[in-house]
Design brief:
By secondary structure, the protein is α+β, with helices and mostly antiparallel strands. The chain contains 14 helices and 16 strands. The protein has 3 domains: about 140 residues, 3-Layer(aba) Sandwich (Aminopeptidase), CATH 3.40.630; about 140 residues, Gcn5-related N-acetyltransferase (GNAT) (Aminopeptidase), CATH 3.40.630; about 100 residues, Nonspecific Lipid-transfer Protein, Chain A. The structure holds acetyl coenzyme *A. Belongs to the acetyltransferase Eis family.
Length: about 450
């Protein structure tokens, strides 16, 4: 298994991008790595990050924990040293954070450069600061040897311009419990309540197995499960409302975990809404048992589960298909930085040959590539000379031709969208039509890609 810690050290120490530093310096702004040895500097960065997402200032006694959670990461700040009197010059006007994690892909996993906390203070928006930071992080990822970068987004309009594509969708599932009637099998194990103190370790252990079953899912950072469950802030009102259940196999092994809270109906005590904060499962039996449990909680009229896989089997586990309403949203956005390495890191459903011509305004993925997949589903991808036309008569013909941009390539990568859909939407080059069926046979996966968390 890949060890994230080695990459983490390399990433957090690597210098900030010179091109972006120069671009921002022209505007009188200082772009730099955050000095993670200094508590005061970390606190100022955290303040900027929370302000960027309109979050309340954190309680003072939570600061040591918050600092520890980010100290090992690559933190970038942008400072306006010419801020007028009264403004706090130590608080950055823009932030990003990055760290290495592992992305599950069909047939394996590969290191990924995760980017988050991209914020620019409203006082400084619209001046190209976010662009400089995101491009800087992509250059940093590429020079550190990452083949792929990823992020989850506050708005889906932000990252396509940098070559990110929506690669794994999420389903928001709303189920009317009164109509649902369980028809699925009964698992052999048991659903039990667990205390919040036990929740982070149990949820983390289950997810660590579950994430490897879903292309598109990622490894999580050390503090992630304490933060998601609220175990790091047990007295907060939102935490106290949460309930935690675990599915244990007959031998006691936990293979599923769910967290939820109830939103009370203002008038009718039997019409509450149960909101699922997390459902992670390493087996179909565990997922089914947890769904069955959630749909049977008394006094609940509606169960709402955001962030589910688009092919969640739950609609086939209940008696009334229309008891469940499903809305699909973009969720995991990926950016391919090294085409041969990214494509060679996953397996493919059938053998085949392709010639890919990738356009990329930022350059990372641009070029012509031959892709040959063998009978075992393993790919060999090679950069070809940049001649615009291949020699049609040559036996070494790289295969059917597909022309696309970096964003479309990222969306195709995990099989989350078909080339047919992209072609119908005019997202592939005009000469790509002949390759569509081949690409779809090769890239398709048994399961829809899914990212089970935010990061
Ligand atoms: C991975 C994550 O962290 S997702 C979280 C993103 N951050 C947030 O949602 C926090 C609140 N928002 C913000 O902090 C800022 O408004 C940001 C980060 C979204 C944008 O910062 P800015 O410095 O104003 O962006 P910048 O001026 O660099 O604009 C870059 C490009 O994005 C576009 N853009 C900026 N804001 C938006 C928006 N809300 N919707 C669509 N496009 C936008 C600009 O038009 C510009 O396009 P172009 O370069 O192709 O011409």
């Amino acid at each position: 298994m890949h060890d994230d810690r080695d990459d983490n050290n390399a990433v957090s120490r690597s210098v900030p991008d010179g091109t972006s530093a120069a671009r921002l310096a022209e505007r009188g702004l200082r772009y730099a790595l955050v000095d993670t040895a200094s508590d005061a500097v970390l606190d100022a960065w955290l303040q900027a990050d929370r302000r960027g997402f309109h979050a309340p200032a954190p309680p003072a006694d939570s600061m040591p924990r918050r600092r520890d959670a980010i100290r090992g990461l690559r933190l970038i700040g942008v400072w306006d040293d010419a801020a007028p009197a009264g403004a706090r010059p130590d608080v950055p006007i823009a932030t990003t954070v990055s760290w290495p994690n592992e992305l599950t892909v069909p047939g394996g996993a590969l290191p990924m450069y995760a980017i988050s906390s991209v914020t620019v203070a409203p006082t400084h928006s619209g001046r190209g600061i976010a662009r400089a930071m995101v491009e800087g992080e992509l250059r940093a990822a590429s020079s550190a040897g990452f083949a792929i970068a990823g992020l989850t987004v506050s708005e889906s309009t932000l990252y396509g311009r940098y070559g990110f594509g929506p690669a794994a969708m999420a389903a928001e599932i709303t189920i009317e419990t009164g109509r649902a009637r369980w028809t699925g099998p009964e698992g052999p194990g048991t659903v039990v309540f667990v205390d919040i103190n036990e929740a982070p370790a149990l949820f983390g252990a289950v997810h660590e197995r579950a994430r490897l079953l879903s292309p598109g899912d990622v490894s999580t950072r050390g503090d992630f499960w304490a933060s998601l469950t609220g175990a790091d802030e047990p007295d907060a009102e939102s935490t106290r409302a949460r309930r935690f259940v675990v599915y244990r196999e007959p031998d006691g092994e936990p293979t599923g975990a769910a967290m939820y809270h109830l939103t009370k109906h203002p008038d009718v005590f039997s019409k509450h809404t149960l909101e699922v904060g997390c459902l992670t499962a390493a087996s179909d039996a565990a997922a089914g048992a947890l769904w069955r449990y959630l749909l049977s909680v008394p006094l609940v009229q509606t169960v709402k589960a955001p962030l589910r896989p688009v092919d969640d089997p739950v609609r086939w586990l209940i008696g009334d298909f229309r008891a469940a309403a499903v809305t699909v949203v973009d969720h995991h956005w990926l950016r391919i930085l090294d085409v041969p390495r990214a494509l060679e890191s996953r397996t493919y459903a059938v053998p085949g040959r392709l010639e890919l011509v990738v356009r990329d305004a930022l350059g990372f993925a641009a070029g012509r590539f031959s892709m040959i997949v063998d009978d075992a589903g393993r790919a060999v991808v090679a950069r070809l000379a940049d001649a615009p036309e291949r020699d049609a008569g040559a036996d070494a013909s790289p295969g059917e031709h597909m022309e696309l941009d970096a964003q479309a390539l990222a969306s195709l990568y995990l099989g989350g969208v078909s080339a047919d859909v992209l072609a119908r939407a005019g997202r592939l080059g005009p000469r790509s039509r002949g390759a569509v069926e081949t690409v779809d046979r090769m890239f398709r996966t048994a399961r829809a890609p899914w990212l089970s968390t935010w990061y």
